What does this fold into?
Amino acid sequence: MLNIYEKKSYTAITTRIRGGLAREITSPVKVRVPLIIKDASHNLIETLAIWDTGATNTVIAESLCDELGLIPISKTNVRGVIASGIRDVYLIDMIIGNNVEIKNLRVTTGNISPEDNKFGVLIGMDIISFGDFSLTAEPDEDGILSTVFSFRVPHGPKAVDYVEEINRFKREKDFHEKMKKNRTQPKVKSSKKKEKEMNGEHKSR
It folds into this structure.
């Protein structure tokens, strides 16, 4: 069977956050003016992004917008925690990690981390819906849980379904236990074969 990754061009990132379960999911990103905009600097600016499944759209910090020298392309009405009212809309290209590139993304600006300007980008569902987003936990050698975040674009051919995974495990376990039980049980000779052996008619082959 052909591997799914031979059918499409997939890119992905995986982040392991050690030392317990993470309270926030972050990724390093690079942002620039889109290449389709001529007569502009297309230098990549590195910053830190926070993922937010509760946000409909992606937002960039006002300071990052100024640093990039972005020019608004339209306006939109925004209602959210970090920004509200009529806001300018900008276009950006963004590379998440080193692999996942999103081109010509429409964003607005907002005050993402007013205390320390830690985050330059808030990634919303407009990007998350491009692909498959998973959040799991795994123990290290000391039994301390770490958060494992992974994101793949585009969507894969099969969804992650933990109910089906558990049911499949139970079916396989029942099958193997049944096979093991059948191997340990002594074979019972048929009554006809027993009768031949008693009459001395059974011949070995």
